[in-house]
Structure of Phosphatidic acid phosphatase type 2/haloperoxidase domain-containing protein:
Amino acid sequence: MALLPDHLRPSLRDRRRHQMDADRRKALILSYLPDWLLTIVLWIVFYLIDNAHGYFREFDLTDGSIQHTYAVHERVPVWALAIIGAIAPLVIMAAISLGLIGSFWDFHNAVLGLVLSLALSTTVTDTIKITVGRPRPDLIDRCQPMAGAANASPYGLATSAICTQTDFHTLRDGFRSFPSGHSSFAFAGLGFLALYLGGKLHISDRQGFTAKTWICVVPLLAAALVAVSRTMDYRHHSTDVIAGAILGYITAWVSYRQYYPAIYSQDCHKPYSPRLLEDMSSLVTEPNGHDAQFHVLPLHSTSSQDENASVHPAQK
């Protein structure tokens, strides 16, 4: 058996079968309009939440964990995060679904799942951020306490009222440490890509191809490096990035399972079928009536046998 499964090496006939005319493609996308609207709403909610005042937690001026230097230039700025966590997974999945497999339907499910994962992670992360109000490791430097500032006597703490920082955005962002947004975004996007690659490569086929594992681990390693960079910039505590990573991967897994079976399923390389029955029939069978090598699963369901199967038949 070669490293690249046969279902990723379709024949010319398979490619033509997967090509949809413009009307059918439009109908398929419209059938998923509620899903797309939900993701748009989530992004709007994220924007509104991100501009909220949020909670400013009290802090200790003598706490060494929040006395680090404020880094003006981040190792992974927001624009780089967008490329790493969103654009790169999109390009890779497009190359596989459209270029290698020739399936618009697989591409649609992959993009929708990715966008949903990112939207969920950013919205949940920001909601927690503004509610918790945890000080960042560089809070004191952001705050620029007034001369002679001290904790409330005799046992109290300091508040943002002692800060002389004139840039409110910089100060407000100093109270949004938990969880890490960079970490959750990276794992939401690259975690989804790892699951997508795992499904296409049948990583759980019990055939022991180490290369498959490494291919799926690379996106997670990239996400981990993004998360670690946040502690190097003193933007987050270690617990912030760990929580963000867990949150991001959970949203990736939840979103992936909305449109694909589990990666241990025998049919893990196949997306769930369209919501239009006529399109399902056209995608499941070839023109001659025989089952296609790369087809979709029955309408949003898998048999118990498929869900429980962890062995993919060996390629001869």
